[in-house]
Structure formats: C-alpha cells, structure tokens
Specification:
The complex is a heterodimer of chains A (168) and B (117).
Chain A (H helix, E strand, L loop, with lengths): L14 E8 L3 H9 L1 H4 L9 E7 L6 E7 L5 E12 L3 E9 L21 E10 L2 E9 L3 H5 L6 H14 L1
Chain B lengths: L2 H11 L2 H13 L4 H5 L6 H13 L3 E3 L8 E3 L2 H38 L4
Antiparallel strand pairs in B: 1-2
The chains are: A alpha+beta (168), B mainly alpha (117).
C-alpha cells in the first residue's frame, strides 16, 4: 500500500489543511506566492527572513529557498512544481535541501526520521468578491505508517487526541 | 524531540484498531481488555497484542492490581506527536499572518503612488 505522493491517491485524512481569506485580488495573492521578490517578504514564521529564493514557475520547475531564524539558523528547502494553473492553483513537492539544491534527509535539520523525504503542497486561490480564499494542503505521512500499511487517519487522530490532552 | 519515541508512536498509530482503542480510552477512561475487544471482531489474544504495542510505545499503561489489568491512556508520547504536527501548522499560520500584512502594505503603496504591483 505504498503511497508515492500521487495527489489522486492522497486521502484528506492525511493532510494538514489551512484556509485563510486575504483582502486582496487573486492575481496579487498568486503573485505574492509565486514571485521571489514578493515571496521573501512573508514566507516563514514571525521573525524569520528568506535570504535566498528562486522560483521557476512551470510544471517540473524548481523552487529553492533558504529560511533564516532570528538566531541565524538556516534551513534550506526545495520543491518541484507538479501543477501550475495561473492564478488558481499550484501543486508542488516540498523537501529539505542544501544550498546547492540537493534533497537532504529531514534528520539533517533535526526533524524526525519518520517525516517523509518529500511532502506535497497544494495551494488553491479562490476569488470571492474581491477577496481571495487560500486553501493550503500539506500532505505527508510518516514512513512508519506506510510500512504498517494503514496510513490514513493519523493527523485526525492526533488532532482529536490533542483536544483530549488540552482538557486533561 | 526524541525521534525514537516519535518513531514508535507513529508505528503504533499506524493501525486503525489501535487508533480506535486510543480513542475509546480518550473518551471513556479506563477499560479492561474485554471491554476494549467488544467493538472489534477480534479474539482477546489479538487485542492483547495491539495493547502490547501501545504499551511498549508508552501510549497506554496497565493496572497491576486487578486481574483484568485495566488500560489507561498515557498522554506523553501523543503530546510529542501533536507538537510535531502543530509545528507545521504554526509555520503556515504565521506565514499567512505575514502574507496578510505584506498584501496590505502592497495595496497601500499602490494607492499612494498609483503604482501597479
């Protein structure tokens, strides 16, 4: 039951889904996401900077960027576009990388070895009366779950249990 | 975050029966093996096997007092996994906050000097 990252075989339960409505036209939001001169202004948690970013916006094109923490720690990531529909939708892989653009293991940056080498990001931009609803799906499953052959549901389980823990 | 713990937690969570057992313990508190086996068409030894995996992963503990050895949910490892998922959620939520600010900035600039983005 190996899942090779084909978006059609992904199940919603495996995804982290985040939705946000931005008060800007869709073309602008899409540009902000797909042009480096805009992207570097917002990508990453609060206080982080993006000192390097290249985006080759076409299927098979590469996105390669570096994120720097307030303490100066750098994390390089890289993606390959699977789908580009201007200004509606992008689908791209997401991996940890080095400065040369080689994919590296998540453990290189102290992440769990269970995090797959590659995750899949699907971003859709929906226009709603001058505003833009962005839906981000971050799909990835721990390889341990794949090996056990039953992969769906873990994010939901964790969410549900996290709620329980919050009460405990 | 100790990755060996995450590893065994994920392996334990990979099975739907084990997730159902955890969900049952999360909502209903302590339960015996027999009680946990009821919703499944499984033998007691088969359920015991799942419980052993959960116990080894530190996801449940089992009482020593009674013969039924009631199972209870242990929060520690789950907290680590949910922290890990949370890390990604925070990343995107915070990025979106910044994107929102940036878009406002862009549009303000556009209005002030009439420039197109």
């Amino acid at each position: 039951m190996a899942n090779n990252g084909d978006p059609n075989t992904k199940r919603p339960e495996q995804e982290l889904v985040i939705t946000r409505v931005f008060g800007a036209p869709r073309e602008l939001v899409f540009k902000a996401w797909t042009e480096p001169e805009h992207f570097v202004h917002w990508w990453g948690p609060k206080g982080y900077t993006t000192p390097f970013c290249t985006i080759d916006l076409r299927p098979g094109g590469i996105m390669h960027q570096c994120m720097r923490s307030p303490e100066g720690r750098e994390v390089w990531t890289k993606g390959v576009f699977r789908e580009v529909v201007v200004p509606e939708r992008i689908v791209l892989t997401d991996s940890f990388a080095d400065a040369e653009g080689n994919v590296v293991s998540p453990t290189h940056y102290g992440m769990s070895p269970e995090w797959p080498l590659e995750t899949l990001l699907t971003v859709t931009f929906d226009e709603q009366a001058g505003e833009t609803k962005v839906t981000l799906r971050h799909a990835g499953i721990p390889s341990g779950a794949e090996r056990d052959g039953a992969q769906q549901g873990w994010v939901e389980t964790v969410d549900r249990l996290a709620e329980y823990l919050a009460q405990a | 975050m100790p990755t060996d713990t995450l590893h065994s937690t994920f392996a334990a969570l990979a099975d739907p029966t084990r997730r159902a057992i955890l969900a049952r313990l999360a909502s209903g508190g302590e339960a015996s093996v027999k009680e946990l086996a009821e919703p499944f068409e499984m033998t007691l030894p088969a359920v015991s096997k799942h419980l052993k995996v959960l116990e080894r992963a530190g996801l449940i503990s089992r009482g020593r007092e009674a013969q039924s050895r009631p199972c209870r949910l242990e929060a520690g490892p789950l907290r680590e996994v949910s922290d890990w998922v949370e890390q990604y959620r925070r990343f995107w939520e915070q990025s979106f906050d910044r994107l929102d600010d940036y878009l406002h900035e862009l549009r303000r600039g556009e209005n002030e000097d009439g420039e197109q983005w």
